[in-house]
Every structure is written in structure tokens, then in C-alpha cells.
């Protein structure tokens, strides 16, 4: 998929420009694949495999492991390049591994509650859940979990 063309067609600010029938991304923006770690996410750039950009979890804007995203580079006086996700261009997740606890469904990796009806499953069962159908739930609960984590320190 031509991500630059997609961005160009719906942009509201100058992110991509068209010059001589070629789409060019402004230097303030990057496109890459998200890799999650415990403390932050790393953006592997599609056009420069050697450069890594760091994204704090609160700046993921609903992006998840292996999603292709558009980010805006943020000035960082400490030297590491940081960014915030503006848009998820392509979702990688299709299924989510979950466990049934107290007759409720939770993601195994993040322990996020998913509001759905559980049929024919008992506590302790591991199930694969259709992640695309309920991805909005996952995004909301990830954001709430991150907010709770940071509010705890204040």
C-alpha cells in the first residue's frame, strides 16, 4: 500500500507533498513499524532500518505491536529522537490471546478486560479472540491502564 498517497489524499496540514509525480514526506514526520517494550515503544522506520525512534506509551495513540504508523518527531534535548503517533496506517493485530478469569475475558499480555459474552468457557481457559472486531475496547483499556499507571505517581 502506498502510505504517502493515502496521507496526501486526506491530510489537513502539510505532511506529504507531491513533486514531479512523487510523494515526499516532510522531515518532521516518519513512517514505521511499532515494537513494544515494557517502558516505551520503538519505531522501526520503513525507509531507514538503522535509525530508531522512541515513543512513550502515552504517545502511541492506540497503536499496537507491528502496526504501521505515521508519527510526528518531537524535539528532545537529551539527544534521543522521540515521536508521537498521529495515525495508524495499517493494523497488524488480528487475534488476541485471552484468558477467562472470574467469568470475564482478559488479554494475556496486558491483563486488559474485554467486555464481551463468554460462551462455553470456564475460568482458566485460554481463548483466541477476534482482535479487529473489539480493537476499540483494547485501545481504550490500554489508554486507561497507562493513565492509571501515571496518575498513581502523583
Provide a descriptive summary of the structure in words.
The structure is a single chain. Helices cover 17% and strands 40% of the residues. It has 154 residues and is an alpha+beta fold. The protein has 2 domains: 3-90, OB fold (Dihydrolipoamide Acetyltransferase, E2P) (Beta Barrel), CATH 2.40.50.140; 95-152, no CATH class. It is elongated, with a radius of gyration of 18 Å.
Report how far apart the termini are: 43 Å
Question: What name goes with the CATH superfamily of the largest domain?
Answer: Nucleic acid-binding proteins
Q: Main sheet, how many strands, which sense, barrel?
A: 5 strands, antiparallel
CATH class category label of the largest domain: Mainly Beta
CATH topology of the largest domain: OB fold (Dihydrolipoamide Acetyltransferase, E2P)
Query: How many distinct folded domains?
Result: 2
Based on the structure, what is the oligomeric state of the protein chains? single chain
pLDDT < 50 stretches: none
Strand runs, count: 11
- What CATH architecture of the largest domain do you see? Beta Barrel
Task: Please state the overall shape, judged from the principal axes of the Cα atoms.
Answer: elongated
- Class derived from helix and strand content: alpha+beta
The whole-number mean of residue pLDDT values reads: 77
Q: How much β-strand is present in the residues?
A: 35-45%
Strand order within the widest beta sheet: 5-4-3-6-7
Percent helix: 10-25%
**Element order: H for helix, E for strand:** HEEEEEEEEEEEH
Question: Which key terms come to mind for this protein?
Answer:
11 strands, elongated, OB fold (Dihydrolipoamide Acetyltransferase, E2P), four-stranded antiparallel beta sheet, 154 residues, five-stranded antiparallel beta sheet, single chain, alpha+beta
Amino acid at each position: 500500500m502506498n502510505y504517502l498517497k493515502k496521507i496526501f489524499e486526506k491530510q489537513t496540514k502539510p505532511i506529504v507533498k507531491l513533486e514531479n509525480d512523487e510523494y515526499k514526506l516532510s522531515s518532521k514526520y516518519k513512517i514505521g513499524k511499532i515494537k513494544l517494550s515494557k517502558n516505551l515503544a520503538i519505531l522501526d522506520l520503513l525507509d531507514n532500518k538503522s535509525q530508531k525512534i522512541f515513543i512513550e506509551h502515552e504517545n502511541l495513540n492506540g497503536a499496537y505491536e507491528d502496526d504501521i504508523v505515521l508519527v510526528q518527531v518531537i524535539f528532545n534535548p537529551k539527544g534521543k529522537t522521540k515521536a508521537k503517533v498521529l495515525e495508524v496506517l495499517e493494523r497488524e493485530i488480528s487475534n488476541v490471546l485471552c484468558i477467562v478469569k472470574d467469568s470475564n475475558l482478559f488479554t494475556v499480555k496486558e491483563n486488559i478486560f474485554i467486555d464481551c459474552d463468554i460462551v462455553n468457557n470456564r475460568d482458566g481457559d485460554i481463548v483466541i479472540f477476534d482482535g479487529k472486531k473489539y480493537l476499540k475496547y483494547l485501545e481504550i483499556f490500554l489508554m486507561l491502564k497507562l493513565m492509571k499507571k501515571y496518575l498513581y505517581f502523583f
